[in-house]
Batch of 2 targets.
Target 1
Amino acid sequence: MTDAASRSGAIDTAELRRRTQELLAAHPVADTDRVDFLKARFDAGLAWVHYPQGLGGLGAPRSLQAVVDAELEAAGAPDNDPRRIGIGLGMAAPTILGYGTEEQKSRFLRPLWVGEEVWCQLFSEPGAGSDLAALGTRAVRDGEDWVVNGQKVWTSSAHLARWAILIARTDPDAPKHRGITYFICDMTDPGVEVRPLRQITGEAEFNEVFLTDVRISDAHRLGEVGDGWRVAQTTLMNERVSIGGMRIPREGGMIGPVSKTWRERPDLRTHDLHQRLLTLWVEAEVARLTGERLRQQLVAGQPGPEGSGMKLAFARLNQEISGLEVELLGEEGLLYEDWTMRRPELVDFTGRDAGYRYLRSKGNSIEGGTSEVLLNIVAERVLGLPSEPRTDKDVAWKDLAR
């Protein structure tokens, strides 16, 4: 630690490098089990350096996480397979950190980050997708437990998950935004049924989840009773950043495969396709750099509505780029690798073939908040435009037309 950092008790770049090298010396990558190494990394405060000590962090500036990641990558250290546990990392963890009790933080954050426990998100319902606050899943207090009944839908990774973040209605007499409570649900409990939802790609990465008399201890409630909508906003803001603001290299994401095809297949080129590719390449690079700026803003605080703008751009670009790729490939673009029903462990937006990318990108404008809803958020919270008229804001949920 530098003299200045030592006097202030702050963690600086040199100190993080020293601690990372100590971790590598104590747990040599070649001789240490992957999970054991990840546990040691968490315990050393090098998982999320901006989290508090004892919870995977050191209370250091968020920007310094890149120092640790670079050192460990250079040493060939294993990562925690973030794509497989993205819901836990990007949505559950910041919500637990912000609203959880000390017991909840200690219980859930370490196995979540290590990847021992997969998480899913029980928010959307058949009648409450874009208008999430209209949800009807009920949670009724019974002593120290809550009894939950309802149906959730579009639940990624529910077939793999041990835990779920869940919002349910606890007060039907209150307006819809004020009668919701946030819970942690054990997906292995009796009454939890997961059914696959096969998509246009042939896969079933999504699920519908039925909850029948599921008992959730009040100790697994996040935040105050009736304050679930506010807690859920933390989850949703982080979700949009995690989807739309992922760190990718230049020509990462959808633009990579089509650029590669363009370079390797001159026989497919036309002037019109060239102009469209150039335009989309520039837009993809602008979105990538904007994402970098957004992550830098996160260093100073919590994610804001800017994440909704990034998610909008992510969906539009993926759909336009994948459409261009199919058109570039001509008849080849109409082929599809495999329609076999499968339940993948992770979502790879750019994986498989061009046909898969084209079909899978159609869901980008729905998942994580529909583009229509996100346009409203950007208009109202970023541009400061007047909000749309609302007639249901102060009406008890039970009295709403359904």
Target 2
Amino acid sequence: MSLTETRYTISEVEARTGLTQHTLRWYERIGLMPQVDRSHSGQRRFTDRDLDWLAFVGKLRATGMSVADMVRYAELVRAGEHTSEARRELLERTRRDVRARIAELTDTLAVLDFKIEMYSGRNCGEH
């Protein structure tokens, strides 16, 4: 880390990400977040790279990936390039799950659209 790199306090990261300080500390404690640099007084100092990682974790959360799988992915990243195949497999499995959820939601949306159209025409059935 360079001396000129921007560093953020936990309060600033909370404001930028919407994640609570408790959540940020928990992410670090469970290994989802790499160890955050500390100032000489022990205050956490996050970097732009940390913010990028948190944004990616937010995307993983949005996929419905379990915390255990997110931690596993973080461990694989920290383990190095030789884990790229395992990381890819984990992300591909998550992509399959997301696509299945999208298909299910698309079907659900079609049913809702049908019902709304039915009610708009005042041709209401029992359901």
